Known about the structure:
- Helix content is 62%, strand content 12%.
- The chain has one domain (3-126).
- The mean pLDDT is 92.
- It is of the alpha+beta class.
- Strands 1-2-3-4 form a four-stranded antiparallel sheet, covered by helices on one side.
- A hairpin with a 4-residue loop joins strand 3 and strand 4.
Amino acid sequence: MTFEYDIIRTDELVKExxxxxxVDHYRSLFKIIxxxxxxxxxxxxxxxIEIIARQRLIFSKDGNFYYELPPKKIELRDLxxxxxxxxxxxxxxxxxxxxxxxxxxxxxxxxLLDFRDKLRKSVADSV
Length: 127
C-alpha cells in the first residue's frame, strides 16, 4: 500500500460519510412530504408524481422513488447524484462551463424542495 492509496481511501470515506450525514438529516423531511404525497395519490387515484421529466424521476403511490425507463426503484441516498447529473446537463445546455456541480447538500435540498413543489402543484391541479 502506498501513501497515495491511503489518501484516496480517506477521501472516499469522507465522501461516503458526508453523503450519509446529509441523507440522514433530510430523511425525516422527506418522510413528511412522502406521507402527504401518498395520501394525495390515493385520494386522487393517481399512480405517480413526476419530479424530473427529462430523467424520468417519479414518486410512486407505493411510497418509493423511481428513476429512468424502465423505472428502477432508488433509495433516498441516490437523489443527490441524480440532481448533480441534472445540474451538469443543464449547465452543458447553457454552455455554462464555469458552473460546478452542486454539493451533495445543495442537491439534496433541491430534491426536497422540488418534491414539495411538485406535490403542491399536483394538489392544486386536482382541486
